[in-house]
Amino acid sequence: MIDETTLSGYLDDLPAIYRQETTGGRPDFFGRFLLGFEHVLTGVGDPSRPGLEEILDGIVADDGSTVLAGTHRYFTPGPGESASLRTPAAFLEWLSGWVALTLREDWQEEERRRILAEIVPSYRKRGTPEGLKQVLAAFAGVRPEAITIAEFQQPFQLGVTSTVGEDTVLGGGPPHYFMVQALIPGAADLARKRAVLRAIIDMEKPAHTFYDLRIQTPTMQVGITSTVGEDTVLGAPLQNP
Fold first, then answer.
1. Alpha helix stretches (DSSP H) within 44-151
2. What is the CB-side half-sphere exposure of residue 80 using CA atoms within 13 A?
3. How far apart are CA 187 and CA 238, in angstroms?
4. Residue partners of 150: CB distance under 8 A and separation at least 6
5. φ and ψ at residue 161, rounded to 5 degrees
6. Does residue 127 carry a pLDDT above 60?
7. CA–CA separation, 60 vs 62, rounded Å?
8. 56 pairs with which residues across the strands?
9. Which of 20, 87, 135, 148 is deepest in the core (most CB within 10 A)?
10. 8-13 long-range contacts, Cβ below 8 Å, gap at least 24?
11. What's the rounded Cα separation, in Å, for the pair 35 and 88?
12. DSSP string covering 154-205
């Protein structure tokens, strides 16, 4: 706790003549003078205003817990992590430049962090259905299993591709076409999410391909999808355009 009577810890490293006692009920001037330099150079344990040394090395509490991570946190998107363990929001644009990613203005902060955390591993699968699923799932905050990509390359075959509404196409599918189905358990902001999902697909898909996007939203089910404002939709599910 820093108050008007706090003196700099730098006094402990100086000869005794400079470590005068407080006189007249007022703190020693030299101790207060050095406190300004201590704030800037080494810090005083305040994570909201760290000194240069604390920015580099971090702040560790007496019990060994990390109050503020060191320099490495500026390279950590940290979706779901506390603010002291991940890069500040102002650094996300800078960090995205390192991984050749353009952050859209309509992406929320946590969405930006999730995509930044997944984009580099997905580069090894870029141009493949698995790579696209990984990026879409990261944005939507769902497991990759909630994203389905079907290419419809097989014609209708009894017992093989004959489930109506899932894998049935009479005469086979058009070349270079695929369908993306996403199960998004969130009632809020679905129109924006749809637009962003399309933008991600356009960015990640091979240039010669075309697609349809279908979003499925669970309706209200007590105990399953019943959190108002998060995963509840009253009435019919959102219709796909």
1. 52-57, 92-98, 109-123, 129-140
2. 5
3. 9
4. 167, 178, 179, 181
5. -130, 75
6. yes
7. 7
8. none
9. 135
10. 8/32, 8/33, 8/34, 8/35, 8/37, 8/38, 9/38, 9/44, 10/34, 10/37, 10/38
11. 26
12. SPPBTTTB--TTTT--TT-PPTTEEEEEEE----TTHHHHHHHHHHHHHHHS
Tell me the residue type at 40: V
What digits encode the pLDDT tens for the residues 53-70?
887 788 877 677 777 778
* Residue ranges per structural domain of the chain: 1-68, 70-124, 145-241
Phi and psi at 60, nearest 5°, equal -115, 130
Residue 218 to residue 231: CA distance in whole angstroms: 7
- What percent of the chain stands above pLDDT 90? 8
Would the pTM of this model clear 0.85, i.e. be above it?
Answer: no
pLDDT at 99 over 60: yes
Residue 109 is predicted with a pLDDT of 93
**What does each C-alpha distance from 237 to 113, 190, 229 come to in angstroms?**
29, 11, 15
- CA 206, CA 212: separation in Å to the nearest integer? 14
**What is residue 221's three-state secondary structure?**
strand
What would the two tokens of residue 156 be? 């209708």
Query: Residue 112: pLDDT above 70?
Result: yes
